[in-house]
Q: What sequence folds into this?
């Protein structure tokens, strides 16, 4: 882990405890629950001039006005006025550095040591006709337009009550509701993003290739445009078999009254339930995992505990031949030089630069920049600005080479580590990673969020022991033990890796699954609405 190999941790938890991420750093963050009082003497002999909250930075040396404040070994800001050693260094004392330009970047310069392959790890998954593997067995009902959401939702309630008990091998029935489909400029530049996102989500490996669509009839996004012929893999392997798109159209003349619509949806759902019920788990290599990593509600510990542990696990997964996606463009933008230098080829680096440039232009069009990302909670948690947040976010990508790049809503076709370009918004990132084919989601949080998805298991990792203790039935892994000094990054990374195999196999449920915590799909639509 490049960002943490020089991490220097002072003395265990009850005594004053600060964490420095890099030997060049001139600030450290306070580890103690509740922070440290003015007058506290650190083991280095430095006395705190004022109270410093947990997760916030303390100046280790005098920082004259204009001096670079270094964390993770890089400038996260410049002192607006003199800051004395022992002071609390918060966002109001710093000017943020400008974003790194997208020219003259180091391209594929880092050749990380080739890590030995990890052999022999398996999980129990559902093998699909197209070769992909599901971790859950779910009937998903695709919708062309928001207009049909109420009817579909009503039908799904009845399917769950009346049909699902007869198909015990099927885990769930999920309506893929969304806000798109009509009232939109469907041919505008950017409109292809929400459309291909919906298409590719319908093909997520957890749904077994059983695509059924509920359409209104008059909407802009017609079923044939959403799922053109040839999109759906042929579930039955007989030569010449063709899979016709299964569409229930509510405006069809055959429908007389609400109940006839519900009956149509239920009748078609049963056809798919029968086929899904015949799916059985089989032992597959860990290389069939398609893992999306992201963070939300981050704090200054995200980049110290949970994200480095996820990064270690990313390396394990790639060594096992699996696919890992990291995303959240505004939260990695400030580390673009780290990313392009880790690209396996100049083409991969160029594709990353192209996605970042597209996003820069998108933000400029809205008269903002990457600094619009940080939240009040981030700042309360000790993150001064997006530069500091990005340095902590990027470590989720581990140290392995970056071998692929996906544009928003595209479907992943390669193994290894892929930069999947998405906004950092938790729901939009999760939605786009589902479209890419994610079958397992890892989510780190410091402030705490009960985030979950109906379509795919979400493993949540807490950055602090205090959060893991209070949210004991919402957090699946406590990476706060790393800051406490009771576990190493490697230990938590391995714990996560083994938990992922158990969750993927259905042997364990995540807390979000236990409580059925399901956030809405939220499409990324950069195009105009009408
Ligand atoms: Ca996020």
A:
């Amino acid at each position: 882990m490049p960002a943490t190999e020089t991490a220097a941790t002072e003395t265990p938890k009850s005594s004053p405890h600060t964490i420095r991420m890099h030997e060049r750093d001139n600030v450290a963050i306070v580890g103690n629950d509740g922070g440290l009082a003015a007058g506290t003497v650190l083991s280095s002999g430095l006395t705190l001039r004022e109270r410093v909250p947990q997760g916030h930075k303390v100046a280790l040396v005098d920082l004259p006005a204009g001096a670079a404040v270094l964390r993770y070994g890089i400038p996260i800001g410049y002192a607006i006025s003199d800051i004395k050693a022992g002071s609390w260094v918060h966002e109001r004392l710093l000017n943020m550095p400008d974003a790194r330009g997208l020219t003259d970047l180091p391209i594929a310069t880092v050749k990380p040591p080739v890590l030995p392959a990890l052999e022999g790890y398996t999980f129990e998954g559902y093998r699909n006709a197209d070769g992909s593997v599901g971790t859950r067995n779910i009937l998903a009902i695709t919708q062309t337009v928001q207009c049909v959401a109420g009817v579909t939702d009503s039908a799904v309630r009845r399917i769950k009550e009346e049909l699902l008990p007869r198909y015990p091998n099927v885990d769930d029935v999920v309506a893929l509701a969304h806000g798109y489909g009509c009232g939109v400029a469907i041919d505008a530049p950017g409109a292809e993003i929400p459309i291909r996102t919906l298409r590719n989500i319908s093909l997520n490996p957890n749904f077994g290739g059983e695509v059924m669509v509920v359409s209104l009839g008059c909407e802009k996004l017609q079923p044939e445009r959403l799922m053109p012929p040839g999109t759906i893999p042929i579930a039955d392997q007989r030569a010449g078999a063709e899979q016709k798109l299964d569409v229930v159209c509510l405006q069809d003349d055959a429908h007389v009254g609400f109940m006839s619509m519900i009956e149509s949806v239920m009748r078609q759902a049963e056809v798919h339930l029968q086929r899904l019920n015949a799916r059985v788990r089989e032992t597959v290599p860990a290389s069939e995992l398609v893992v999306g990593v992201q963070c939300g509600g981050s704090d200054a510990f995200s980049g110290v505990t949970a994200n480095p542990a996820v990064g270690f696990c990313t390396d394990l997964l790639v060594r096992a031949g699996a696919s890992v996606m990291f995303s959240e463009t505004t939260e990695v933008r400030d580390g673009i030089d780290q990313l392009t230098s880790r690209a396996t080829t100049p083409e991969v680096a160029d594709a990353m630069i192209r996605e970042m440039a597209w996003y820069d232009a998108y933000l400029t069009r809205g008269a903002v920049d990457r600094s619009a990302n940080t939240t009040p909670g981030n700042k309360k948690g000790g993150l001064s600005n997006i530069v500091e947040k990005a340095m902590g976010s990027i470590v989720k990508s581990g140290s392995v080479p970056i071998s692929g790049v996906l544009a928003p809503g595209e479907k992943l076709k390669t193994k290894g580590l892929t930069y999947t370009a998405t906004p950092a918004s938790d729901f939009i990132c999760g939605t786009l990673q589902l479209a890419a084919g994610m079958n397992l989601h890892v989510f780190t949080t410091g402030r705490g969020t009960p985030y979950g998805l109906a379509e795919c298991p979400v493993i949540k990792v807490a950055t602090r022991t205090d959060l893991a203790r209070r949210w004991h039935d919402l957090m699946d892994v406590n990476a706060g033990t790393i800051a406490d000094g009771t576990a190493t990054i490697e230990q938590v990374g391995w714990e996560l890796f083994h938990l992922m195999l158990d969750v993927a196999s259905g042997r364990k449920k995540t807390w979000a699954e236990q409580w059925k915590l399901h956030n809405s799909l939220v499409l990324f639509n950069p195009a105009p609405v009408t």
Observations:
- Confidence is low (pLDDT under 50) at residues 1-8.
- The domain at 1-98 is CATH 2.30.130.110 (Archaeosine Trna-guanine Transglycosylase; Chain: A, domain 4).
- The two ends are 47 Å apart (CA to CA).
